[in-house]
Structure formats: structure tokens, C-alpha cells
Amino acid sequence: MTMSNTPMAANPLTRAVLEIDEYASGLGWDQPARLFALVDTVRLRTQEPALAAQLGLEDESATTGLTPIEQDEVPTDKALDEFLGTIAWPDAVVGCALTVERLMLPPSAEKQVPEGLSEARLASWVAQHPDRQEVRMTVAVLRDGSRDAAVRLREKDSPTEVLTGPDLVPGLAEALRATFAD
Predict the structure, then answer these.
(1) Which of 48, 66, 74, 124 could lock onto 33 through a cystine, CB 3.0 to 4.6 A?
(2) What is the strand order of the sheet 133-142 is part of?
(3) Rounded to whole angstroms, what are the CA distances from 13 to 41, 113, 123, 146, 172?
(4) How many of the other CB atoms lie within 10 Å of CB of 78?
(5) How crowded is residue 19: how many other Cβ atoms within 10 Å of its Cβ?
(6) What is the rounded CA–CA span in Å between residue 172 and residue 178?
(7) CA distance 90 to 96
(8) What are the two backbone dihedrals, phi and then psi, of residue 152, each rounded to the nearest 5 degrees?
(9) Are 55 and 41 in contact (CB under 8 A)?
(10) Residues paired with 148 in a beta bridge
(11) DSSP-derived secondary structure for the chain
(12) Is the whole model's pTM more than 0.85, yes or no?
């Protein structure tokens, strides 16, 4: 899933996050969550040359980098945190990433949230709020605890408008990191 429009980023994890964000963007909005294993590109070419060839990585001259490999569908009948709690990764997987769409409110709207709403009623309330924003979040973590994220607003759906940073979606990053716990 190598993307030619992915901006050059300072580190392999940020490049992987932006590559996944671009891939998800190409699929359009209103998509289900997508889970990716992150593997060391050089190790993949060495240990799995047929898979590397299938992914178009056999001729790459890069000596570092991460290759995202999309996993089976994320179930929609189970809460995301419950699903993540069932994942165990083999040693060859150095990290993982998830892309998910959500409705978000600006911090100024937090004071308006009614007390005591169930999860379903809160979701409905957010969906009706005039300041809601549709976002696509791509969050990645490595076994060593490194993390990065990309957030894209639907109303500013452009590669130049994607926000990146390690602390943008800390709760999801922690949930993904927990998939590597022994």
C-alpha cells in the first residue's frame, strides 16, 4: 500500500501513520474501523520475499521503515475496546495501527454535556450537536511504547490539513499498546 503522495516524515512511525491515513482517505468516508500490523520492512523482505513482492516492496532500497499490513475486518458487533482486548500479536509484528471514524466536539462543548447519559444517549446527543466534527483518526504504536497519530477532519479532507502528533488520541494509543502486553 505504498502511497506516492505521502509527505516525507521524520520517522518511520509517522510515515506509516500518514501512509495508512492516505490509504483510508482513498476509500472515502463512512468506513468501518481498520486494523493494521506494522512490520519491519527490511525483515519482511528478508523473511517473507513472496509477501514483500505481493506488497510491491521487493525492489525498495530503503534500509529502514515500517510496512502496514491490513488485518481482517474489525467486528462491528463488539465495542472497540473489547475487540482490542482479544488481540495478541506474533513477534514479527513490531507495532500496530488502527484507523477509525468518530464524531468529536470541540473542548468548548464539554461543559454542555448533560450528566448521567448512557453511552448510546451520549452518542445520540453528540450526533445532534451543531458543533460536532466528523474525524478520521489513525493511531499507531510500537512495542517499545512509541506512538503517533493522524487526525483528518471531514470538512477539511486534504492531505495538507492532516494533524499529526503522538498525543492527539492518547486513549486509543493506550488501548493499542495494551495489545502487546504479555
Answers:
(1) 74
(2) 66-70, 34-40, 93-104, 133-142, 147-153, 163-165
(3) 12, 35, 31, 8, 16
(4) 12
(5) 25
(6) 10
(7) 11
(8) -125, 125
(9) no
(10) 140
(11) ---TTPPP-SSHHHHHHHHHHHHHHHH-SS---EEEEEEEHHHHHHH-HHHHHHTT-TT---SS-EEEEE-SPPPSSS-HHHHHTT----TTEEEEEEEEEEEE--GGGGGGPPTT--HHHHHHHHHH-TT-EEEEEEEEEETTS-EEEEEEEGGG-SGGG-EEETTSSHHHHHHHHGGG--
(12) no
Report the length, in residues, of the chain.
Answer: 182
- Per-residue confidence in pLDDT tens, the chain, 182 aa: 444 444 455 689 999 999 999 999 999 999 999 999 999 888 877 777 777 677 766 665 555 689 899 998 888 888 888 899 899 999 989 999 999 999 888 778 878 888 888 878 888 887 888 888 899 999 999 999 999 999 999 988 888 889 999 999 999 999 999 999 87
Closest CA to 148 of 12, 18, 14, 33: 14
Q: Amino acid letter at 14?
A: T
The position carrying cell 502487546 is 180
